[in-house]
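Standup notes
- HV: blocked on the assembly model, inputs below
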Amino acid sequence: NAGVTQTPKFQVLKTGQSMTLQCAQDMNHEYMSWYRQDPGMGLRLIHYSVGAGITDQGEVPNGYNVSRSTTEDFPLRLLSAAPSQTSVYFCASRRDMGMNTEAFFGQGTRLTVV
Amino acid sequence: AQSVTQLGSHVSVSEGALVLLRCNYSSSVPPYLFWYVQYPNQGLQLLLKYTSAATLVKGINGFEAEFKKSETSFHLTKPSAHMSDAAEYFCAVSDTGGGNKLTFGTGTQLKVEL
């Protein structure tokens, strides 16, 4: 069972470059989200999607774009990378929007912006 | 909006000792609470979740948590720590403020010493 797959695992970008972090899930989950993890700050929600074609902003959306053209995929785009975006990024999926529905996480993408 | 606070960013215990990781929540409605564990260089995985069916919730790897409404707490415990329990632990709450997003605490790093 693949679950939630993120690529790449590691990435180094120069300031101003753009890139897309890939996320795919094979569990037919409706709900997908992107978090960033920074020391001492836990996980903060960047963007989320409640289904194909529907996305919304989370707590820290600036500098990031998302789209959801299929149920399976939820890519995160960095438009113009900045050192403040150096972080570990996690994609997560949930079966639905139920309050008690747990999230399944990918292995993370460690991004460094120099 | 709901939130969680984890007291103690680092906790150190001896192998075989009781593990107690603290989580307090803030919610105006009955909360749905989760504990996740993150091993080094991995994604988060669910330990247990509270969904109002029972106040004492048993999870994987011998962990359990007790929901105490009077104390607005959902502390995580394990009677006897094992070296393999060394990891970072996150408390999370389902946020009713749009999208039922999962909001995470800042995490507690558990160290287990011989």
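- HV (later): unblocked. Chain B has a mean pLDDT of 91. DSSP finds no helices and twelve strands in chain B.
- Next: hand off to the docking folks.
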